[in-house]
UniProtKB/TrEMBL annotation:
Entry keywords, A to Z: Signal
SUPFAM superfamilies: Cyanovirin-N (SSF51322)
Residue stretches in coiled coil: none
Name of the protein: Cyanovirin-N domain-containing protein
Keyword Chloroplast: no
Length: 152
């Protein structure tokens, strides 16, 4: 038997309001915009790019992908993630000009989500680290960008 009092009713209402989540873009939203930035709305590169990968050359860690543009094509784009990520005591964080490549290595993407995995120094030893690059790297008409930096 369930007893509902004014207290539990208030709690249930508060709980229901706290659980409201903003809906993700729909397929129609994606089709309407071509999966690119339109009217200030940005889509994660993970939603509109394919065959993405990361490679390291010295201290540069580069994200490469083929990204959907307004004309329907998928041009190749790459961006140096040193413009987008920093190493904060062994954890990767989104930050303009973070230069995380100085202390992180062995980067790779694994799985369907744009999660970048690697090893970053915490000041004593390297530790596993991960970051969802889709939270701050966007596709602007086929070009990767973050914090005002655009890929080639």
């Amino acid at each position: 038997m369930l007893f509902v009092t004014p207290f539990t009713m208030g709690f249930l209402t508060l709980f229901a309001v706290a659980c409201v989540v903003r809906a993700a873009p729909t397929i129609q939203d994606y089709q309407d915009t071509g999966g690119v930035i339109m009217n200030g709305t940005a889509y994660s590169f993970g939603d509109s790019c394919n065959t993405y990968s990361a490679y390291q050359s010295g201290t540069d860690i580069v994200l490469s992908a083929s990204c959907h543009n307004k004309s329907g094509g998928f041009p190749y784009s790459s961006i140096n993630l040193n413009h987008c990520i920093t190493n904060n005591m062994g954890q990767m964080e989104a930050r303009k000009d973070g230069n995380f490549g100085l202390s992180c290595n062995r980067m790779l993407f694994h799985g369907a989500q744009p999660i970048l995995y690697g090893f970053c120094s915490n000041g004593k030893y390297p530790q596993e680290a991960a970051i969802d690059v889709g939270d701050f790297v966007d596709n602007d008409d086929g070009r990767l960008n973050c914090f005002g930096y655009y890929g080639e």
